[in-house]
Each structure stands twice: as structure tokens, then as C-alpha cells.
Amino acid sequence: MFLHIDHVDKQFTNNKTVHQILTDIDLTIHEGEFVSILGPSGCGKSTLLSMVAGLSDVSSGKITLEGKEIKKPGKDRGMVFQQAALFPWLNVEENVMFPLRKEMGKKKAKETAQRFLQMVQLSHYADHYPHELSGGMQQRVAIARALAMNPKVLLMDEPFGALDEQTRARMHKELETIWVETKKTILFVTHSISESIKLSDRIIVMGTQPGRVIADIKVNIPRPRQMDQKEAAELQRRINALLKTEIDKVVNEELAHAANH
Amino acid sequence: MQRTIKQIIFIVALIVIWESVVRIGGWTADIMPKPSDVWQALVRGFEDGTLIYDLGASFQRLLIGLAIALLLGMGLGILLAKSKTADETLGSLILSLQSVPSIVWLPLAIMWFGLNEKAVIFIVVLGGTLVMTINMRAGIKNVSPLYIKAAQTMGSKGIDLFIKVILPAAVPYAVTGARLAWAFAWRGLMAAEILSTGPGLGYTLKYASDFGDMSLVIAVMILIGVIGTVVDLIFFQRVEKNVMRRWGLEAS
Ligand SMILES: Nc1ncnc2c1ncn2[C@@H]1O[C@H](COP(=O)(O)OP(=O)(O)OP(=O)(O)O)[C@@H](O)[C@H]1O
Ligand SMILES: [Mg+2]
Fold it and tell me: Taking the CB of the first residue and of the last residue of chain A, which one, N or C, has fewer CB atoms within 10 A?
């Protein structure tokens, strides 16, 4: 058991009312697996990921990585957010060196940063500042930065959500190559069905209100995958049907709420 | 370029109108000097070195005062941002002091320090510190949570997080604070020099007024305005703009 999300619940309390966000999430993720978490907006995907990152606490249950319970953020889990979250006062190379500066000398950190910038094909931009890069380039730097500290798990929260279609397709290819090269365990949050089919070994489909796992689907389509392949189209139809019930639920609730006000 | 041309034409027109109105009205220079009188006063002041001497004296006080104000302001701003108790007590006091022009402290300052440099510097420090404190506090409070989260996932916490992430993220606010501190300090300095003692631009202005030398009065006024604008435009606004762009707070 590599990463174990063990019967985790999450509640938020707002003005004394308790909101159940996630109920009984129970997942085992194996080393080297590329797992997508797919679900409608607001079902708690980001919340789940930030608990794995250690940025927020579980309400009950526990999360363990290689048997050790996760309580705080740590370098064994790298995180890539929807916005690149690069530090604007550091150049590209310094950004990638940020997590390394304590554990290795400057020279070694520089070499490591260079290596990972090469992996995302941005070594020529080492001394550029984040505001000089496009959104896709910034996100690649963020991926390099997370990988450079050699985490056991890479957590990605809709990392390509803000990018245009073509850039996103390029990023998919690049991420797949990186994953094949590094064999990292990746937990990838998305609400795009095709993105999850294209990239992952396994898709966790989540329902909403409260957030829970409604399906855990193995994807056995050989890579590189095309969305017009028969199996891919078939899988997409199946997940669509699963999610439709969930999205209808959100819409109905919205309508009921509107009617009451 | 267009804009600069318009501005030059405007200033020239203003001077021409001023010169002709005074000539037609027939006022003497001790009531309303002509631009040419003012220009002569300015040239005389620079030639005999008095204005240069004054500029040096004023700037020395300003720099000492501003440096103290910026350091104090940063320290206080950090304190207010980090301590809720300090913010609720000292913070609200500082906010209300902000509405009091620093120059009203001069009588007290003269009592405490005597009629000398120190009283003037005190006014400069007071003028700059408050606004720097308020901006520094806002800068630290408004650091994007995303930066903090990202840094935490990279193993940064505590003092390291504060120095390597929160402080640099607050730089845009600090720069704005410094620009405003300069503006307040400059105004406070001139007022304090007029009301207390010299040497300095403000003191020379009052001295000229006592002797009815209105040409020199206006010459000094123009000098005060030009320096205020030039430092703001050439230095602070440029730095501020660069920082805003780099920090991604402004579409470039
Ligand atoms: N700090 C918080 N306090 C209270 N409620 C919160 C907090 N953070 C998230 N929530 C709520 O938890 C639910 C899940 O939020 P979350 O951001 O995890 O959803 P998501 O699945 O990532 O959605 P999206 O796809 O839109 O990013 C939402 O209803 C949200 O309002
Ligand atoms: Mg989210």
C-alpha cells in the first residue's frame, strides 16, 4: 500500500452550520500509478488533494503515504496548482531551485534545476522572470519545480485548466512523457473526461453533495491514446452517463434553491 | 511625445500670460513678480550658492528622516500584521494619527528637542512612518494564499516562509508605502523649515518673505514643486511601475 486514503471525511463549519463535503473516501493508490480524480465542480476534488498535500486536515479517517500518516505539507508530495504559483520575484531557475536550497549546495541545486527545466523544454528560459512567460510555460516551470524536489507523489489540481485547447494537448503529451520517464505516482484532478481518459491508468469518478467515490475505473487502452479510438469513445460515454446523474442533482438543487428564494 | 509637446506648450503659454498680465496690471515685484523676476531670483540664488546650500541642508534632513521612517514603518507594519493585539490597539491609534498632519506636532517637537534640526527631522519621521506602517501591514496581510500554500508544499515554514516568501510578496505595497512616505516627508519637511529654523529651502522661503522678496519666494516655491514632482516621477513611479509589472499586478 503506497498512498492510502483511509475512510476520510471532511466537514467545513460555516456560521455554525456543518457542511459535509466529503464522506468516506477510501482509496488505495499504488506506486507509479497515474490516477485521475474526476467529478463535477464543487464535489471536493481540490479539498481531497489539499488534504493529501497536508495543507488542510481531515475531519476523520487518515491518509498515509508508505505507512506514515500525513499531518503536514512535506517535500515527499509535490503540488501543482491551477495557477502556476511561481514566485514573481525569482527567475525561472531560482523558482525551480526554491525547494532545493536547503538540502543541497548552490551548484548542485542549479544543475538539478537545469535538468528538470530541460525535461519541460525550458532550459533556455532559466533567467527569464515568470511574467515574461506564457501561461503554458509557467505551468511547465511549476511542474519542473515540483519534480525537482523528487517527491514520491505528484499532486496536480487542474494544472491545465486555464490553458487553451492546443496548449493543453501539447502539455498532455509532455506530461505523459515525463510520467513514463520518471515513473512518478501522479494524482491528477480534472473535470475533463477526455483529459482523464487520455492520461490515466485509473479514473476515480466522484459524485457530489456530499462528495464521494461513485466509480473506480481501470483504463487499459494502450498509449499514446487517441480520443477517437473505439475504447476511448466507449469509456467516455460510460463516464458521461455516470456524471450526468450527478450534474442533474446539482441543477435540481439549484432550481429548488431558486424557487425557495 | 505628443503629450510632452502639449505640456511644454501649456507651460510656455502659462508663463507668457503671467508675464503679460503682470506687465499690463503694472504691479511691482514686491506684490506680484513677473516670471522674468522669478527667473533672475532663481539664477542669483544658484550663482551665489545660497539655494544650493539650502538644497543640500534640506535633503540631508529628508534622507535621515525618511530612512528612519521607512525602517520604523516596516518594523511597525510587520508587527501590526503579525500581532492581532497590536493591530487592534496600536494599529487603530496609527490610523487615527494618520488624519493629523505631522506639522501640528512641531510645537511639541520644539519643546522636546529645541529649535533645531532634530525637531525638523522628528516631523519628517512622523510624516513618513505612519503611511509606511499602514502600507507594510497591508502588504503582508494581502500576500496571496497561493504563494504560501505553494511554499509550504516545498517544505518552507516559519521564519524561512516569512523571509523568503511573505516579505518579497509584500514588496509592491512596500514600494507604494515608500513613495507616499516620501511625499508626506517632503511636505512635512518644508512646513517644519518654514516654521522653525534653517538652513533649508523652507527657511529661505520664510526669510525671503520677511524681507518682502516675493521673487525669491516664488522661486523657492517652484523649486519645491519641481523637486517633489521629479523625484516622484523619475524615481518612485518608475520603480513602482517596474515592481508592479514584475509582480504581475498590472497588465503590461
Ligand atoms: N475553506 C472552506 N470553507 C468552507 N467551505 C469550503 C472551503 N473550501 C471548500 N469549501 C467547499 O467545499 C466544496 C468543495 O470544494 P472544492 O474546491 O474541493 O471543489 P472542487 O471539486 O475542487 O471544485 P472545482 O472543480 O470547481 O475546483 C465546495 O462546496 C466549497 O464551497
Ligand atoms: Mg478545485
Answer: C
pLDDT of residue B115: 86
Residue A21 beta carbon below 6 angstroms from any ligand 1 atom: yes
Q: Mean pLDDT lowest for which of A142-146, A181-185, A255-259, B7-11?
A: A255-259
Count, residues in chain B: 252
B252 has a pLDDT exceeding 70: no
CB within 8 Å: A85 and B150: yes
- C-alpha A29 to ligand 2 mean position (Å): 20
Cα B186 to chain center, whole Å?
A: 4
| pTM of the shown model | 0.85
Q: What is the pLDDT of residue A225?
A: 82
Domains and CATH numbers, chain B: 56-81+92-246 (1.10.3720.10)
Task: With a threshold of 0.85, tell me whether the complex ipTM lies above it.
Answer: yes
State how far the Cα of B174 lies from the Cα of B166, in Å rounded to an integer: 12
What is the C-alpha separation between B247 and A94, in angstroms, rounded? Answer: 15
Instruction: Tell me which of 3.40.50.720, 3.30.950.10, 3.40.50.300, 1.10.357.10 is the CATH number of domain A10-76+151-260.
Output: 3.40.50.300
Q: Record the cell numbers describing residue B139, joined without a space.
A: 502588504
Q: Is A45 in the pocket of ligand 1 (CB under 6 A)?
A: yes
Is the pLDDT reported for residue A249 higher than 80? no
Q: How near does any CA of chain A get to the CA of B78, in Å? A: 20
Q: Is A207 in the pocket of ligand 1 (CB under 6 A)?
A: no
Cα separation, A174 vs B224, whole angstroms:
60
Q: From the CA atom positions of chain A, what is the Rg in Å?
A: 19
Q: Are strands A60-65 and A34-38 parallel, antiparallel or unpaired?
A: unpaired
Cβ contacts of B9-18, under 8 Å, gap ≥ 24: none
